[in-house]
Amino acid sequence: MVTTKPAQPSAAKKVRVPRKTSASKPPFVVSNPTPTPKAKSSKPPSSPKPSTPPTLPAEPEPANVLVMFSKVAGAVPGCSNSKGDCWQVNETQWRSVAGNLEQQFEQQGYRVDKLDDLEDEEGMGIYEVSKPGAPTHYLHFLLTDRGTVYLLDSKRLSRGELEREIGV
Predict the structure, then answer these.
(1) Which of 21, 93, 98, 167 is the residue whose CA sits 20 to 30 A from 32?
(2) pLDDT tens digit sequence for 77-93
(3) CA gyration radius for the chain?
(4) Chain-centre distance for alpha carbon 78
(5) Domain limits of the chain?
(6) How far from chain centre, in Å, is Cα 74?
């Protein structure tokens, strides 16, 4: 009796591929292009300039934040003696205007706190605007027959002072 071994799985057959010889390839020729003469400049070579450190943009002052917001909101100057710190919009919901301005200040790194200790809150609001290392400002809102007027001042104003400032 003849026993046969089970066939092993066949390994991949190796096929020999004849190598090409250099005789079968044409020779590779490298040509060197003729250099083109450069035009001579009459200017002497410049010396490297010392690098200056980049300047960081100055952080916006509260009045600048107010001006930027006011231009976007379509506001017009709201006080007769305005120096860019008093604006008026037709919006009669002063709290909506205050909320939008609060967001603008906070995006610039300011802290904005609504003051709740007003004698007369009817149509009026005051917010304290502060930032570490910067003076505190007060943002006043007053609803008038012209819409909402808002004023940024370095001191907190009473209703009477605010009305005199605005001219109502």
Answers:
(1) 21
(2) 888 766 668 889 998 89
(3) 39
(4) 28
(5) 62-156
(6) 21
Phi, then psi, of 103 in degrees rounded to 5: -60, -40
Phi first, then psi: give them for residue 65, nearest 5 degrees.
-60, -40
- What confidence tens digit (pLDDT) does each residue in 22-78 have? 555 555 444 555 555 565 555 555 555 545 444 434 555 766 777 777 776 788 888
Q: What are the pLDDT digits (tens) for 132-152? A: 988 899 999 999 998 999 998
C-alpha distance from residue 22 to each of 28, 30, 44, 69, 78 (Å)? 11, 17, 53, 77, 90
pTM (two decimals): 0.61
- The type of residue at 68 is M
| Contact indicator for 104, 62 with CB cutoff of 8 Å | no
Residue 113 tokens read as: 């706190």
